[in-house]
Amino acid sequence: MKTVRFGIVGTGRISDWVLKGAVLEPRFKAAAVCSRSEDKAREFAARHDIHRTFTDIDAMADDPGIDAVYIGTPNQTHRDIAIRCMDHGKHVLCEKPLASNALEVKDMISAAARNGVVLMEAMISTLSPNFRMVQERIGDPGKVRHYSGTFCQFSSKYDQLRRILRGEEDSPVPSSFNPERSGGALMDIGIYPIYPMVTLFGRPDSVKADVLTIDVPTSEGMRPVDLQGCVTFGYDGMSAVAMYSKIADSRLRTEISAEGGILSLDQIHSTRQVEFIPHGAPTSGRSGGPAKEDITVPCDPDEYLCEFKEFIDLIESGRSESENNSLDNSLTVVEILDEIRRQAGVTFPADHRD
Ligand SMILES: NC(=O)c1ccc[n+]([C@@H]2O[C@H](COP(=O)([O-])OP(=O)(O)OC[C@H]3O[C@@H](n4cnc5c(N)ncnc54)[C@H](OP(=O)(O)O)[C@@H]3O)[C@@H](O)[C@H]2O)c1
């Protein structure tokens, strides 16, 4: 068993979170961390027992003691960091969304191909054991007629955004609501119901978005960013809907409804429990019919373990890309995100750079 030596880019909350899962994979080693600040790099390294720190991404990318990088920085930085690392021969596991827009994702895909390295989007939804089980069973209840995916979670960053807008707090707009960082509800959480839909059913024929936006301050003046959305998708013989919000919660389950019954997932971003509800199952205590069935399979001990396992499997087996988190799927998803933003009138500075 060969260990893959990782450089971690960015010392934010998400890097802390994913490392808790990564260290459960025996082939994973956190070899270095890169931060824009030496102090933050040292603090992060101490927290995670990492022995080397960098403040220059090119120096880390050039280091022969590192095989792969995990990128946990804001969306507008993904393309440049990933390409710099791939051009130095490093494999790249990059946070979702893979980049700000389709043009950037295409640049990254070209860089992976010319360097012969693995590039994978760190999208856990489609790699979790319960999602994989659903994927295997999807044909069992017959023709799928409807997919309904939801991720709505009130964000504490929205409270902070409101304080900033009221002039009560003088800090930058947080990344997840900041168009300069290619943020917004769609990029932050709307992608979670959309990516699995594309993995399961491919590219939709049509996209119709209903999006709520708000103007936020940027260095170029006020600019719209999205807070929540409801998007409907047309497919041949089926329809789909994705609902996402950072300003309201929801406990709606994600459903894949087929002619013979419903595969019902507790949550799509990281599925822990799945039911199969056969057609004709009782809808009240008095009616008869086949009972619903809990078909959950055991979850990983940490929800981020699956992405490291998948990524390291690819490196070890010499495969260039994941089946579920394929580069085609990542590109199709970001093209859908671009279309939703176009309909919503949300653009990023990253859309206008070379
Ligand atoms: N998979 C998940 O569950 C999950 C959850 C949340 C977020 N995310 C994704 O994680 C990424 C980071 O999101 P976030 O909200 O955590 O962002 P963030 O807090 O604004 O930034 C994360 C870290 O990136 C570094 N950074 C910030 N600005 C940078 C810049 N201009 N250039 C280079 N590095 C920069 C900083 O580390 P240093 O100060 O050390 O440089 C910062 O702590 C996004 O792609 C987001 O979609 C994923």
Break the fold down into its secondary structure elements and pairings.
Layout lengths: L3 E6 L3 H10 L5 E7 L3 H11 L3 E3 L2 H5 L6 E4 L3 H13 L3 E5 L6 H14 L3 E4 L6 H9 L6 E9 L3 H10 L19 H17 L4 E13 L2 E15 L2 E8 L8 E5 L2 E5 L8 E5 L14 E2 L10 H13 L9 H18 L10
Parallel strand pairs: 1-2, 1-4, 2-3, 4-5, 5-6, 7-10
Antiparallel strand pairs: 7-11, 8-9, 9-10, 11-12, 12-13, 13-14
Helix pairs in contact: 1-9, 4-5, 5-10, 8-10
The protein binds NADP nicotinamide-adenine-dinucleotide phosphate.
NADP nicotinamide-adenine-dinucleotide phosphate (NAP) binds next to helix 1 and helix 4.
Strand order of the largest sheet: 8-9-10-7-11-12-13-14
Q: Count the helices. How many?
A: 10
CATH topology descriptor of the largest domain: Dihydrodipicolinate Reductase, domain 2
Number of domains: 2
Cα end-to-end separation: 42 Å
In the predicted model, the low-confidence regions spanning at least 5 consecutive residues are none
The secondary-structure element order is EHEHEHEHEHEHEHHEEEEEEEHH
The counted number of beta strands is 14
> Architecture of the largest domain, according to CATH?
2-Layer Sandwich
Structural class by secondary-structure content = alpha/beta
Q: Over all CA atoms, what is the radius of gyration?
A: 21 Å
Measured by DSSP, the beta-strand proportion falls in: 25-35%
Query: pLDDT average, as an integer?
Result: 97
Major sheet summary line = 8 strands, mixed
Bound molecules: NADP nicotinamide-adenine-dinucleotide phosphate
Helicity level, as a percent range?
Answer: 25-40%
The CATH homologous superfamily of the largest domain is called Dihydrodipicolinate Reductase, domain 2
